[in-house]
Design a protein that fits this description.
Chain A is mainly alpha-helical. Chain A has a single domain, classed as ABC transporter involved in vitamin B12 uptake, BtuC. Chain A has 11 helices and 2 strands, in the order ααααββααααααα. Chain A is globular and about 60 Å long. The two termini of chain A are 34 Å apart. In chain B, α2 packs across α12. Helices cover 39% and strands 19% of the residues of chain C. Chain C has a 5-stranded parallel β-sheet. In chain C, α2 packs parallel to α12. Classes of the chains: A mainly alpha (283), B mainly alpha (316), C alpha/beta (432). At the B-C interface, α2, α13 and α14 of B face α1, β2, α3 and α4 of C.
C-alpha cells in the first residue's frame, strides 16, 4: 500500500511537470501544440548529448536542454503559429507534422534504438519494500518547486498578470495595452523550456527513444482536458489522479492496462463536460 | 449534379492510364503503387469525414483498425471465408463510425481531434489485453489468407478498389449531400439554420467514411497477410494519412489520391539514400513547407497556376 | 558525412524518377540484406555479410561474378519488413537474401519468401514455428535456412541450467516469469513453463507479460516481488537494456536471470551506464565472454580494424552471417548459381564447417538432415543450424551458453561447466 503511495507520488509529480508547459500554451495561446512532446524529446537528447556523451556537468546538461527548448519554442511561435494567424486546425496539423519531423531528425542524428540515461543522482532508498531512486525523488521535488514558482510568478509579477489577462480575454487585454504577441512569444518560450527540462527527468525515469514524444503528449492532453483549461492547481490535482490511476492499475489489475483508464478519462470528460472538472478558471 | 462529359472523359483517361501501367513499369514500382492506392483509400476516407465537415480526426486508424481486425480475427480464428468476413468487417466499422459520431454531436474543433486521438490509443491498449488469444496481442497476427499473389494481381486489385471508391465518393460529393457536408465544414450554424438536420448529415458523412475505412482496412490486411497493432494504431500512421489528404488538397476527391501517390513515391525513392526511418525527415520537412505554403494543398496550387496562366494568356 | 547524405538524398529525390523505369542487368550476384539498420543485432548481420562479400570478391567473386550488397531496413516493424522483402525481391531483384530480422518480422515476410522462392538465410530469429513450416511443407520452404539453434534448443539448455545451478547450487525453488509480448517471448515462456517444474523442480508462481514499449518497470517489479518467488526469469529480446537498467536502478531485491538480448553485446555495459551488473542471460554462440577459435578470432580482429562504431564485437548473428553467407556462396558455386532454388537448397544442406580450438570441436556451421531426429527433444530440425544439447558437446557446439555480467563490468560464461570461465553470482544489493 505504502509502495503504491510512493510510486504514485513520484510519477504524479513528474506528470504535473510534463503537463504544465502544455497547459500554459493551451490557456494563453488557445492552441493545441501537438509538437509539445517534441520538447521532451529534444530536451532528453540534448541532455544525453552534452552530459553523457560529451561529459559536461549534469547541471549544465539540464540548463542546455532548457535553453534549446526555449529556442525551439520561440522558433515554433515565429515560424508556425504567427504565420497561421490563429487558424487552430492548421496549427494543430502543422505542429503534428513538426513533431514527426523532429522525431526523424533525432533518428537521423542518434539512431532509432533506445538509450539509457544515467541517473541524475545515483542511489536508491528502500521504504517499506518500495524502491525510491534518488533521481525520481529529485524529479518529483523539482517538479513541485517549478510548479509553485510558476504559480507565484503568474500571480505576482507584471508579466504573469499580463499572461493571465491574455488567457482570459485576448481582445480586452489588447485594449488595456498588453502586447499579446509579446506575451504569447514569452509563453511559448517558457513552455518550451519547461517541456525540455521535463524531458530530461522523464527520460531519466524511463529511457530515451525517438518515439518518446507521444506518451507525454497524451498525458499532457489528459491532464489539461480533465483539469480544465489553464488552471495550474487543476493541473497539479489531475496529474495526481492520472498518475495514481496508472500505478493502481498496474499494481492491482494488469500492467498492460495502465493507460486504458487515462484514455477513458479523456473521452468521458470531453464528451460529458468539455470544460473539464475544474472548469475554466484563470491561470 | 452538374456532370459534364469531360468529367467522365477525365476519369476514363485516369483509369485507363492506371490499368495499362503494369505494361510499362517494373514489379517493384507496382508494389509501391499498391501502397499508394491503399494510402489513397485511407486518405479519401479521412477526407470524407474531416476534410469536408471540418471535424478533424486524429484517430482515423481507429476505424481502419476495426475493419482490419474484424476480418483478421474471423478468417484466422474462425476460418470464415474472406467473401463473408470482409462485408462483416465493413459493417462493424460502420458501427465504429457511429461511436466516433457520438462525441461529434457535442464537441468540435480541437476537442473532437483529441477525443479521436484518445479513441485510437484506447483501442490500441485494449487490443493487447482483451482476448489476446483472438487479437494476437501486441504482436498481432501473421499468416492471414491473402486475396492475391504477385505484384500485378495485387496492383489490379488495389487500383480497382481505389478507383471504385474514388469515383463513388466523387459522385456522392456532387449530390446535394456533398454540398451540404462542405457547408457544415464552413459554417455549421448556417446549415442548421437553413432547416437541414445537421445530425443526419454528419451521420451520413461518418458512416460513409467508416464504410471506406473498413473496406480499405480489411482488403489491406488481406493484401499484407499480417496485422500489427503497433504499426496500425500509430500516430505516425495518422500523420501519413492526414498529410496525404492535406498535401493533395482536402475537400476534393483527386487531392487525397495525388497526395498519397506523391508521398508514397517520395518515400520509396528516398530508400536507396536514406534506408531507415530518417527518410521521414525529408518527407515531413517537405510536408511542413508545402502545408505552410498552401494549407489547401497542391490541387489548389495547381488551380492557382492555371488561373495565373489564364490571366497571362488573356492579357496578351 | 551526415549532411552529405541529406544533400544526396534531396537531390536524388528530384532526379531519379526516370531511373525506376529502367532495370539494368549487370553480370553480378546481388545479395539483399533485410533487418534493422539501427540496432546492434541488425548491424551485426549486415557487417558479417559485408565482410564475407569483401573477402569473396577479393578472391574473384563467385562463378566469375562480383557480389553486390543492397540493404532494406525493417525498422523492426512487420509491415516495413514485408515492404523491405518486396523491395529486395522486385525492385532490386536480388539473388540471395541474408536476414537479421527479429522473429515477428521474419514471420511477416515468410509468405513473400514462399511466393518469390529466393534463397534466404536467417541469422537472428530462432522461431521454431518457421522450422515447423519447413517440416510441414519442405517444397515451398526449400530456399529457407536458419543458422541459429531454434527456440527449443535455447529453452532446453536453460532448463538444464535451472536444474544444475539455480536449483542445485542456489537452492531456489520458485520463479516468476517476466516475459515481453513478442513471438520470441511467447515461444520461450511456453517452453520454459512446460519443462522447468518437471525437469528442474522449480515451481512457476506467475507469468507476467509486458509490452515492449513499457517505459516504467517499477510496478511490474513490485508485482513480481509480491509473488514471493525466489527469482525472476526474464525473457526480453527487444529494448532489453531498459528492463535490466531499471532493475539495477531500482535495486530490485530479487535475483534475475533469463534471456536478455542486449546483454549479448559489448555495448551492454555502456548502455546501462555501467549499471548492469548481476544480469545473466542465455546467449547463442559465439557470445560475449566466450573464448573464440582462431578463425573466429581473426574475423573479429578484421572486423574491429574495419568498423569503428558500435557494435565493437559482432553479436552471434554477425558470425552467423559471415560464415553463413560464405556457405551460401559455396552452395551457389556447386548449384551453378541461385536461380534454381531447389538445386541451391540441396547444395546448402550439405554445407558443414567445423571450427576447432585446442584440438576440440568448438563451433559447427552445419544443418540438420531432413529426417535426422535430435536425441533429447525427439524431433527433426530440417534447415536449422546443427546444435548439441548434451555434454560433452562433441557433435556440435552447445546450443547456447549462459553468460553473466559482473558488477565490475566484466563478463564471463557460467554454464555449461565445460565452457565456464566464472561462477554464477547474485547482485551485491540482494541480502542472502
Amino acid at each position: 500500500m505504502l509502495q503504491v503511495l510512493i510510486q504514485g507520488l513520484l510519477l504524479s509529480g513528474l506528470y504535473a511537470l510534463i503537463a504544465v508547459g502544455f497547459t500554459l500554451i493551451f490557456s494563453v495561446g488557445r492552441v493545441l501544440n501537438l509538437a509539445y512532446g517534441a520538447y521532451l524529446l529534444i530536451g532528453g537528447y540534448t541532455y544525453f548529448y552534452f552530459s553523457q556523451q560529451l561529459g559536461l556537468p549534469k547541471f549544465a546538461g539540464v540548463a542546455l536542454a532548457g535553453i534549446i527548448g526555449c529556442a525551439l519554442g520561440i522558433l515554433k511561435f515565429q515560424l508556425i503559429v504567427r504565420p497561421l494567424k490563429g487558424n487552430h486546425v492548421a496549427i494543430e496539423i502543422s505542429t503534428l507534422i513538426l513533431a514527426v519531423f523532429l522525431q526523424s531528425v533525432v533518428i537521423f542524428v542518434f539512431g532509432d534504438s533506445s538509450k539509457i540515461l544515467l541517473p541524475i543522482i545515483p542511489g536508491v532508498e528502500r521504504v517499506a519494500g518500495a524502491a525510491i531512486p534518488f533521481s525520481n525523488l529529485f524529479a518529483a521535488i523539482a517538479s513541485w518547486v517549478i510548479l509553485i514558482s510558476l504559480w507565484l510568478f503568474v500571480r505576482s509579477t507584471h508579466m504573469g498578470r499580463a499572461m493571465q489577462a491574455v488567457s482570459m480575454d485576448a481582445k480586452g487585454a489588447a485594449i488595456s495595452g498588453v502586447d499579446a504577441t509579446k506575451i504569447n512569444m514569452f509563453t511559448w518560450a517558457l513552455s518550451g523550456t519547461l517541456g525540455a527540462i521535463a524531458g530530461v527527468f522523464f527520460a531519466s525515469y524511463t529511457q530515451l527513444y525517438p518515439g518518446m514524444w507521444v506518451a507525454p503528449l497524451i498525458i499532457a492532453v489528459a491532464v489539461v482536458i480533465v483539469g480544465g483549461i489553464g488552471s495550474i492547481i487543476g493541473t497539479l490535482i489531475v496529474a495526481h489522479i492520472v498518475g495514481f490511476l496508472e500505478i493502481l492499475t498496474s499494481a492491482y489489475i494488469a500492467p498492460e492496462l495502465r493507460g486504458v483508464f487515462t484514455m477513458l478519462l479523456i473521452i468521458v470528460i470531453l464528451v460529458w463536460r468539455p470544460s473539464g472538472l475544474f472548469g475554466r478558471e484563470e491561470l | 449534379m452538374g456532370l459534364r462529359w469531360h468529367h467522365f472523359a477525365l476519369w476514363g483517361l485516369f483509369a485507363v492510364t492506371l490499368f495499362v501501367l503494369p505494361e510499362f513499369v517494373s514489379r517493384g514500382t507496382l508494389r509501391t503503387l499498391i501502397f499508394a492506392n491503399f494510402l489513397a483509400i485511407f486518405a479519401i476516407s479521412w477526407d470524407t469525414l474531416s476534410g469536408r465537415t471540418g471535424y478533424i480526426s486524429f484517430g482515423h486508424p481507429f476505424l481502419i483498425g476495426i475493419g482490419a481486425y474484424t476480418t483478421a480475427i474471423l478468417t484466422k480464428r474462425f476460418d470464415v471465408a474472406m467473401e463473408i468476413s470482409i462485408p462483416i468487417a465493413v459493417i462493424a466499422t460502420m458501427v465504429g463510425g457511429l461511436i466516433v459520431l457520438l462525441p461529434a454531436l457535442r464537441i468540435k474543433g480541437s476537442y473532437f481531434a483529441l477525443v479521436t486521438l484518445a479513441m485510437m490509443e484506447l483501442i490500441y491498449q485494449l487490443v493487447q489485453v482483451i482476448r489476446p488469444d483472438l487479437t494476437g496481442g501486441t504482436r498481432g497476427m501473421s499468416g492471414l489468407p491473402t486475396l492475391t499473389r504477385g505484384a500485378v494481381n495485387g496492383y489490379y486489385m488495389s487500383v480497382s478498389l481505389m478507383l471504385a471508391i474514388a469515383l463513388t465518393t466523387w459522385l456522392v460529393m456532387r449530390t446535394r449531400l456533398g454540398t451540404a457536408l462542405s457547408a457544415i465544414g464552413m459554417n455549421e450554424e448556417a446549415v442548421s439554420g437553413s432547416g437541414l438536420s445537421v445530425t443526419k448529415l454528419k451521420m451520413a458523412a461518418f458512416l460513409f467514411s467508416a464504410f471506406i475505412a473498413g473496406l480499405g482496412g480489411a482488403v489491406y490486411i488481406h493484401y499484407l497477410g499480417s496485422i500489427a497493432p503497433r504499426a496500425l494504431f500509430d500516430i505516425n500512421f495518422v500523420f501519413t494519412i492526414i498529410v496525404a489528404a492535406l498535401i493533395g488538397g482536402a475537400g476534393t476527391t483527386v487531392g487525397p489520391i495525388a497526395g498519397a501517390f506523391f508521398l508514397t513515391f517520395l518515400l520509396e525513392y528516398l530508400r536507396p539514400y536514406l534506408p531507415g526511418a530518417e527518410r521521414y525527415m525529408v518527407y515531413s520537412g517537405l510536408a511542413l513547407i508545402l502545408y505552410m505554403a498552401q494549407p489547401k494543398g497542391m490541387w489548389e496550387l495547381f488551380f492557382q497556376g492555371i488561373a495565373k496562366f489564364d490571366r497571362l494568356g488573356r492579357r496578351e | 558525412m551526415k549532411f552529405g547524405k541529406i544533400l544526396k538524398a534531396v537531390t536524388a529525390a528530384g532526379v531519379i524518377s526516370a531511373a525506376s523505369f529502367a532495370t539494368a542487368a549487370y553480370a553480378e550476384i546481388k545479395v539483399g540484406f533485410i533487418g534493422s539498420l539501427s540496432s546492434d543485432t541488425g548491424l551485426s548481420t549486415l557487417r558479417g555479410a559485408e565482410m564475407a562479400i569483401e573477402e569473396l570478391n577479393a578472391k574473384g567473386g563467385v562463378l566469375g561474378e562480383k557480389i553486390k550488397l543492397v540493404t532494406a531496413d525493417t525498422q523492426e516493424d512487420v509491415t516495413e519488413g514485408i515492404k523491405a522483402y518486396e523491395y529486395l525481391a522486385e525492385t532490386e531483384e536480388v539473388d540471395f537474401i541474408i536476414s537479421g530480422s527479429i522473429d515477428d518480422v521474419s514471420l511477416g515476410w515468410i509468405p513473400r519468401m514462399q511466393e518469390f522462392q529466393i534463397p534466404t538465410l536467417d541469422t537472428w530469429t530462432s522461431s521454431i514455428s518457421i522450422i515447423d513450416m519447413v517440416v510441414q511443407d519442405p517444397e515451398v520452404m526449400a530456399p529457407y535456412f536458419m543458422n541459429i539453434a531454434s527456440d527449443e534448443a535455447l529453452a532446453t539448455l536453460y532448463i538444464n541450467f535451472g536444474a544444475d545451478v539455480l536449483k542445485k547450487q542456489m537452492g531456489w525453488n520458485s520463479v516468476v516469469i517476466l516475459a515481453e509480448d513478442t513471438g520470441f517471448g511467447q515461444a520461450i515462456t511456453g517452453l520454459v513453463t512446460e519443462a522447468i517444474s518437471p525437469v528442474a523442480g522449480i515451481e512457476v508462481k506467475e507469468t507476467i507479460i509486458y509490452d515492449v514499449g513499457t517505459v516504467d518497470f517499477a510496478p511490474i517489479f513490485a508485482k513480481a516481488q509480491a509473488t514471493g518467488a525466489d527469482f525472476i526469469y526474464q525473457v526480453s529480446s527487444v529494448n532489453s537494456q531498459v528492463i535490466s537498467s531499471q532493475y539495477v536502478k531500482l535495486q530490485v531485491p530479487m535475483p534475475m536471470t533469463g534471456v536478455n538480448v542486449s546483454a549479448l553485446g559489448m555495448e551492454y555495459w555502456e548502455d546501462t551506464g555501467g549499471a548492469g551488473g548481476g544480469i545473466s542471460t542465455l546467449s547463442p554462440l559465439p557470445s560475449v565472454g566466450f573464448k573464440l577459435d582462431p578463425t573466429s578470432q581473426a574475423f573479429v580482429e578484421r572486423y574491429q580494424a574495419k568498423y569503428k562504431s558500435r557494435p565493437v564485437i559482432p553479436h552471434f548473428n554477425g558470425f552467423n552471417a559471415y560464415y553463413g553467407l560464405t556457405q551460401a556462396m559455396a552452395a551457389a558455386e556447386e548449384a551453378g548459381g541461385f536461380k534454381d532454388a531447389k538445386k541451391w537448397s540441396a547444395a546448402m544442406e550439405k554445407q558443414d564447417l567445423k571450427l576447432e580450438l585446442d584440438g576440440k570441436l568448438w563451433l559447427r556451421y552445419g544443418f540438420w538432415g531432413k529426417d535426422e531426429v535430435e536425441e533429447v527433444t525427439k524431433r527433426t530440425y530440417p534447415h536449422n543450424a546443427r546444435f548439441d544439447l548434451s555434454a560433452p558437446y562433441d557433435d556440435a557446439q552447445p546450443s547456447m551458453v549462459v553468460v553473466q555480467w559482473k558488477e565490475d563490468g566484466s563478463v564471463g560464461v557460467v554454464y555449461p561447466f565445460e565452457y565456464a570461465t566464472t561462477k554464477f553470482e547474485i547482485p551485491s544489493w540482494i541480502k542472502k
